């Protein structure tokens, strides 16, 4: 009877172990840092190995990470960095997206790369042709021991156009410059507001001369091929009683709509109806 009881207890223990979700700390805990530089969201997700009394960077069996060898730059699956817009990293163009940070430590120089196809923790899979950015940096010594590997986004400039991506672990640190250009994006938003305001005034039948000026500014800024906004201009002109100009503008919109690769979205008909109404 006692043996049966012990067997049942053992079975229950195994069943519990199989179904229980035991949450324990990772030896190299996950870390994340993010910041907005200009209008660009920059985020680094990584795993933070600890020194734990070891020698980290050097040559020889006593060192954890060897000079001259590709390193995932972190633990587990490595470190990922993402940019919400196109940026420059170390003066090199990098498209918006997510990349793995890979490096090659050295005594006086480190190679740092961003790769478009992550290799996770498999350093042997590194393919230099997948590097969208490669630069050489000079490491420096930290003021004290940095126990856990750390990434920071630091030194954001007063005009919000630059920052540094900083790495530190044990007694080694380095940084690479990051630049953003938000002028074109902001200008696009301003111009977009011009066309939106012109459309609003047209819908209300108010401030039509202002609406015409705003739409002209928008179209003259390299947007004259947008037949739908050219059509809006034709409608504004019609509301102002400028029939001859409205007809000519509607015809221009119609021709542009005919040549639009993805179709006219009904604007050929709309322009023809506007022209017919003005005759």
Task: Note down, in words, how this protein is organized.
- The protein has 279 residues and is α+β, with helices and mostly antiparallel strands.
- The chain folds into two domains: 25-179, no CATH class; 183-278, Tetratricopeptide repeat domain (Serine Threonine Protein Phosphatase 5, Tetratricopeptide repeat), CATH 1.25.40.
- The protein contains six helices and twelve strands.
- It has helices at 2-19, 183-204, 208-223, 227-239, 243-258, 267-278; strands spanning 30-37, 40-47, 55-58, 63-66, 79-83, 87-89, 92-94, 97-104, 110-115, 131-137, 140-154, 162-179.
- The chain is elongated, with a radius of gyration of 30 Å.
- The model has no long low-confidence stretch (mean pLDDT 93).
Provide keyphrases for this structure:
279 residues, alpha+beta, Serine Threonine Protein Phosphatase 5, Tetratricopeptide repeat, 2 domains, six-stranded antiparallel sheet, 6 helices, elongated
User: How much β-strand is present in the residues?
Assistant: 25-35%
What Rg, in angstroms, do the CA atoms define? 30 Å
Order of helices and strands: HEEEEEEEEEEEEHHHHH
Query: What portion of residues is helical?
Result: 25-40%
Sequence of strands across the biggest β-sheet: 1-2-5-8-9-10
Distance between the termini: 105 Å
Mean pLDDT: 93
| Number of individual domains | 2
Number of strands: 12
Q: Sheet bearing the most strands, described?
A: 6 strands, antiparallel
Q: What spatial form do the alpha-carbon principal axes imply?
A: elongated
Flag low-confidence runs. Answer: none
Q: Given the structure, what is the number of helices?
A: 6
Question: Which structural class fits the helix and strand makeup?
Answer: alpha+beta
């Amino acid at each position: 009877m006692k043996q049966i009881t012990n067997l049942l207890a053992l079975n229950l223990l195994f069943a519990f172990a199989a179904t229980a979700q035991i949450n324990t700390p990772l030896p190299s805990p996950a870390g994340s840092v993010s910041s907005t530089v200009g209008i660009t969201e920059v985020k680094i997700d990584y795993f933070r190995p600890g020194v734990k009394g070891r020698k980290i960077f050097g040559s020889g069996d006593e060192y954890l990470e060897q000079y001259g060898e590709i390193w995932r730059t972190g633990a587990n699956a490595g470190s990922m960095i993402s940019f919400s817009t196109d940026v420059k990293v170390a003066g090199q163009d990098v498209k918006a997206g997510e990349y793995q940070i890979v490096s090659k430590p050295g005594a006086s120089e480190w190679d740092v790369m961003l790769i478009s196809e992550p290799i996770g923790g498999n350093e042997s899979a590194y393919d230099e042709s997948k590097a969208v950015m490669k630069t050489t940096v000079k490491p420096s010594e930290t003021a004290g021991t940095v126990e856990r590997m750390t990434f920071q986004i630091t030194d954001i400039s007063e005009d919000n156009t630059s920052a540094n991506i900083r790495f530190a672990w044990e007694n080694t640190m380095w940084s690479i410059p990051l630049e953003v250009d938000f002028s074109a994006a902001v200008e696009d938003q301003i111009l977009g507001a011009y066309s939106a305001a012109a459309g609003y005034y047209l819908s209300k039948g108010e401030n039509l001369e202002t609406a015409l000026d705003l739409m002209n500014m928008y179209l003259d800024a390299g947007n004259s091929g947008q037949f739908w906004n050219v059509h809006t201009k034709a409608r504004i002109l019609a509301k102002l009683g400028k029939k001859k100009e409205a007809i000519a503008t509607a015809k221009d919109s119609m021709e542009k709509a005919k040549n639009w690769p993805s179709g006219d979205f009904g604007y050929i008909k709309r322009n023809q109806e506007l022209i017919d109404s003005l005759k």
